[in-house]
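User: Run a structure prediction on this.
Assistant: Running it now.
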Amino acid sequence: MLSLVLLGLVCLSCSTEKDYNLSPRANFDALWHELDVGYCYFQEKLPADSTWEMMHQKYLPRISEGMSSYELFDVLSALMMELKDGHVTLYSSFDTKAYDEWRASYPSNVDRQVRFRYLGSAYRIARSLVYAPIEYNEHQKDSVGLIYYSSFSNVVGHNNINAVLQSFQNCRGVIIDIRDNGGGSLSNAFTLASHFAEKETLVGYTSYKTGPGHCEFSSPKSTILKPTKYGILWKKPVVVLTNRGVYSAANDFALFMKQLPQVTLLGDTTGGGGGLPRGSELPNGWRLRYSGSKTMDPEGNQVEFGIPPDIKVSLKESDIEKGKDTLIEEAIKVIVEKSKSTP
């Protein structure tokens, strides 16, 4: 499972004064070796005709003892980018590098200005949740609730969620917009999702790296989503809006919600990010983060490359020009249709 916050919970191998070493070759070898023994997606990420050892041979000729720190950083970054993993990140005092093509190479399917038009000027903010009802039937005053959650790095508590859902008690359903939510704390994903689970639900499995071999993993451990014990349990229809910008803990939230019967994922396949980040420190003090576990859905499928929506919908330019959000409009239709059969 994914969370930037959990990075602080894993064991970091830190450089001591005795270990401190500015040698480009020493740092190149340290980064390559750390990933070699700890990274979890070699089989999924590298082409069939390539190996991690071949990557070492490919980039070693670019290492020289007279190179600058900037040049070394660029070579190490290029080596890491071969893994095409958004969680693989290198941090120095002068730069940070992470792979971002999981999002950048795809349509965004979101227009922020149009999204806030639906929230209107009277929206409220419950800590990290921006919310407002949307009236879609002017004569009958029917409405659905819209929740926008920008980042799971922003804390959300049960009291906040209860306040939002209480305000939507007369709505036919709820839309949760997590488009471009790049993740954050996994605990926030569990907290929010727990208010929509009527019973304990298997939402996936996690396998942890247990040894230096590329295939050494623990047996899959079940991940169970439990209903909240702290307030409102929402049973009406829910639509979660997704795009390629949904990553890491937000990807997990999409995975959790997809397993619930009253929930529909609508939009585009998420960006993925199914590995729990681990961290270490290079001899020169630069920090390295990478995926150290694998997350699977209840059927055993990897979620590293994203979670497909139940209903694929793309944002139309013609709708944007009219001030409309194609995904929100379709989500309203789904909720209206589902609410007809909801007690």
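The CA atoms of residues 204 and 223 lie 5 Å apart.
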